[in-house]
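## tool: complex_structure
## caller: assistant
## args:
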Amino acid sequence: MDNILRINMSAKGGPEITIKPADTYAGLGGRAMTSTVIADEVPATCHPLSEDNKLVIAPGMLSGSPAAMSGRISVGCKSPLTGGIKEANSGGQPSQVLARLGYAAIVLEGKPADDSLYKIFINKDGVKISVDNSLRMLGNYDLIDKMKAEYGDNIACISIGPAGEMKMAAASIAFTDMELRPTRHAGRGGVGAVMGSKGVKVIVLDDTGMSMRQPQNPEKFKAANKVFVEGLRKHPVTGQGLPAYGTNILTNVLNEAGGYPTMNFRYGQFAGAAKISGETQAALENSRGGEGAATHGCHRGCVIRCSGTFYDKNGRFLTKQPEYETVWAHGGNCGIDDLDAIAQMDRMDDDFGLDTIEMGATIAVAMEGGIARFGDAAAAISLLQEVGKGTYLGRILGNGAGVTGKVFGVERVPVVKNQSMPAYDPRAVQGIGVTYATTPMGADHTAGYAVTANVLGVGGNVNALKPEGQVELSRNLQIATAAIDASGMCLFVAFAILDQPDTFQALVDIIGAFTGQETTADDIIALGKSILTRERDFNARAGFSSKDDRLPDYFKKEVLTPHQVTFGVSDNELDQVFNW
Amino acid sequence: MDNILRINMSAKGGPEITIKPADTYAGLGGRAMTSTVIADEVPATCHPLSEDNKLVIAPGMLSGSPAAMSGRISVGCKSPLTGGIKEANSGGQPSQVLARLGYAAIVLEGKPADDSLYKIFINKDGVKISVDNSLRMLGNYDLIDKMKAEYGDNIACISIGPAGEMKMAAASIAFTDMELRPTRHAGRGGVGAVMGSKGVKVIVLDDTGMSMRQPQNPEKFKAANKVFVEGLRKHPVTGQGLPAYGTNILTNVLNEAGGYPTMNFRYGQFAGAAKISGETQAALENSRGGEGAATHGCHRGCVIRCSGTFYDKNGRFLTKQPEYETVWAHGGNCGIDDLDAIAQMDRMDDDFGLDTIEMGATIAVAMEGGIARFGDAAAAISLLQEVGKGTYLGRILGNGAGVTGKVFGVERVPVVKNQSMPAYDPRAVQGIGVTYATTPMGADHTAGYAVTANVLGVGGNVNALKPEGQVELSRNLQIATAAIDASGMCLFVAFAILDQPDTFQALVDIIGAFTGQETTADDIIALGKSILTRERDFNARAGFSSKDDRLPDYFKKEVLTPHQVTFGVSDNELDQVFNW
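## result:
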């Protein structure tokens, strides 16, 4: 992982490939890499779809090594959705494969002069880029089938669907999973539109002949990894809850806590929650059977295995087990309580290359605007079809909740920095509200998952309904998360490291043993802070101010049932999040 | 003009009317009134379509008096287009009539609980507001016919068309002219959407039984007014050019100067300019004949009479003489050189209640996005029809160039603060570029019309192609304009007062004689500064920073023909505009 691959799509005579040592970026991984390259090289005021923007794809610092859980990959750019810096993060196989191929990052630069569509093939022998207009407007599933036919089964793919080609601000980038299906996505912020603007449809990776990255201190690494894995296995969330029920175990939890955003954040509880809960979903998946039904991993080296496989009524593969946020977005947030319909929309999002959270939030805003009725699953599916087809209505929806709210004159649009809020109402989970408001990413639960101490009793307890303590909670989580996103570790390791000091120390030791450098907890914190500082600096240069670190006004005025609560963290407090 | 009429549309049991003395707002008119009320009373972070926003309609300080040219009216709110403070300004009859009825402002507050549509009738006996759902989705022309049938001919109307009801960000508010036609518009910034969000379709004014507002010092007033009118008559622009050819005299001038934005600001000259110039237009209008053909005023008391009347090929009234910016927006900016097609679009905009500048700029962006071909007049007309119908495509376009660019993934979108640039390319007319960038209104030529010294040789000469001197030019014009917009004077008086010290002094004297207070030129400048300061303070509270006082990046990179020039005023210089 010593090299950076750059492809200049603007070059005269066609794309120009440069492979050079990482140099000043050496040692950076994941979000540390993407945010540093974007902050250093992209003019903050450029148009996100212009030749001045760059798309950076970077495996985590530990990716491609024997470290458990290290298969996350980061995608960075100036976001077409938020107008600020973006890191979107995905599981799947490509992180491990790209790291083993020796690349610390792929950087797509410039913009082709015509509208040719390119594919990129990377293996041990180097990098090839070629025009392939036969791929135009293919869904991710058909695209991957085509790549398999062309390059065989020992590949991993990074690709966009029609949404990315149409440069929609809700377009994702798909990463194939262990079964070579495009089910894992860098979903948020429209990173797929930036890949589309670069004219790149797919990056095919084949690490045949390459080997695993080896730690500098193998003994210490092996020992630390063992403690780390044990820690994950013994924690109730990562050892039991997530494997058995997946992330969707949260539906009942959030609904009981009164923080389950229902029908476009109108209510805090959903009458149909039990019908779409993780427990119901796991039972359904198990009853339908099939390989990897209710417990499955998204990449090799995963020991939590929070995922699963969703087969349809006839036992045919439909999609991976939809995540909690997806089930919420296409489910409760639209008043829909039909798991099969939700799974179908999950499949459509993956195929079109769309962020499930943004799409569910957008359809709910469209429903509030009178385009369809809340609870009408068939209507929601047909709205999503419009997006895939790129009809005028589809173009509106595919550009997210903010644009949809503007087009239909809807006032209640739950976005921060124009990115839709995920599956936790910030009035009833005020810590996550602080994260939504202040993270440089726009509303994002993964940027500082305060649901831990607010609702799950992980890493302490902070009353979810009151403003006290939320700023400190979110601050610490945002710092830790930025570091984890740099490491390549799955964020779910946080449950165990927050509660178990030994597991946290084991992670620190894994990093130290891998790099061969003395590493302490303070170093991890310093890394997290440096990433956030860089991101906020980019956003400031792009025109963001403290006024952008706010929830929409109505969350401070409109009372949420059942707790009769509004968002209570003051503007002054929000402005303290990054005063460390 | 001692009272402020407030109507609270949120009140339980229906709208609540309050008429009270202007109190702390006494003496303010036009933009001084609207911007002060908005800055003082509207929470800067509120949603523009929420109950917290207010719509303020205020006649100028001199409106309703015998002062020549004093018929301008200001509309203020937080703009749904820019997200900042907005003053949009119109000619027509209502300013004089409302002032004579004794109102310094109408303030629409709150928001009705249901979607009933209201009409408001104001005469000497008071104010009536009633539900009239029969008006729903009427075009402004049919609406005014209905009002005439109901209230007789001695009325003046303030209304919205379907675009305002649909809360489109390009929706205007129409003001009837001397012929009781809805041809004058507070066009910019989506003020019509705010009126629509308040549920008010039309305000009908009847000043029967009321008399002209009288100056405190009638002798001094009369003398000053005489000098003022003479000054306007002897200046070549206001005395000859504008009456003979209307504002569209500028087509040839800007085209020759290489600053005529052609095909979405791609070129600085248009091959078809001669076919749509003011000279051609005046000849066409004269050849078709009819009342008020090539020279006509928009309100009583106008001595410039820059307008005219456009009859179609069969001699039937089609629309008022389209303004230069309209002819440009629907003409050269879309590559269209057909005056009849342009006039038809002008009529459609007036009828649907749309800003002609925003719509022309938006259609050009849609053309750049591949939705229609540049130069295709029939396609442009049909796009505009979509807007009136409120189809999905129409909803996109009706929300302006910014949203349209996002939806169709277009990079070259000529907006500042999300408002479309008007008919002067900022690369070839750099002073107007400074105004576009820095005015609190979003790109707006009327906020500081540097075309004067840049191109017309009025008020001095500043080389249009170079950055030197542009900041000072724009600053002085922005200050003067804010004061003129408060006075109720038509901005076209500026040509004469910039060149003729006597005419400027006469205007100062008119104001002093009217109010009975000692007034100097310094007072006028202080008034202008205070308005701008208030507006910028609101925008800062709404989240605007210096980064919003910028042109899109591509104006600094993309060279404009024929002068091979880019926008050269630096960011540092732009930040000096309000350092007075």
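## assistant note: The interface with chain A takes residues 43, 45-47, 49-50, 52, 80, 166-169, 193, 196-197, 391-393, 395-396, 399, 403, 406-409, 411, 541-543, 545, 547-548, 550, 552-554 of chain B (CB under 8 Å). Chain B has a mean pLDDT of 96. Handing back to user.
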